[in-house]
Amino acid sequence: MTLKFDAKEIQVNGETFEILIDEQSIQKRVTELGDEISNDYKGKIPIFIGVLNGSVIFFADLIRNISIDCEVDFLKLSSYGDSKISSGNVKLIKELNADIKGRDVIIVEDIVDTGLSIVYMRGLIQSQNPSSIKIVTLLHKPEATKYDIKLDYIGFKIPNKFVIGYGLDHTQKYRNLRSIYALKS
Q1: For residue 7, is it within any domain?
Q2: Which domain holds residue 78?
Q3: Is 1 among the domain residues?
Q4: pLDDT band at 102, cuts 50/70/90?
Q5: Is 5 a member of any domain?
Q6: Which among 168, 139, 171, 182 has a CA at the least distance from the CA of 1?
Q7: Cis link prior to 176 (omega < 30° from 0)?
Q8: Is 99 a catalytic residue?
């Protein structure tokens, strides 16, 4: 399938997806988040931890909007496989390389729905004794959240719909769409 980056609707496996958040709105909000985090961490050198694979595009754009010194690392989890809904089990696929003891850690997620992955990551990172942990997510589905979690920086609150684009996938495809598309009801 050839992707048309400015299409209002796209067809994926016989299903229709429509633009939920356009490219310009995403870039504006990512710039605002970068400014906010840079102000909050003035005089510090936080380490940003990207959650692979979904956060990679958001992560790259966010880091380019951070105006203070920082470091980066990645971890990889799996809770979806090729499904549209979480399996309910989180599996660590790639561990951190950095020593985060005594560090200010900022976890960068693409989307938070049930909150299970956040609970898992917070526990994993807390066990390494960082100075602080904050979480930034591009998207949050409040209606889907089942766990008591604190999100420190939220790009957009969205309805409980399946979304693709800007790093979010459907069977590992469509991450390269520049806007975020929601499955049309």
Answers
A1: no
A2: 12-180
A3: no
A4: very high
A5: no
A6: 171
A7: no
A8: no
Which pLDDT belongs to residue 1?
57
Does 142 fall in a domain? yes
Catalytic residue among 113, 148, 152, 169: 113
Q: What is the pLDDT of residue 101?
A: 97
Place of tokens 């380019």: 64
Q: How high does pLDDT run on average in the chain?
A: 91
- Joined tokens for residue 27: 């870039």
Q: What is the CATH number of the domain that holds 91?
A: 3.40.50.2020
Q: Give how many domains the chain has, as a whole number.
A: 1
pTM of the model: 0.91
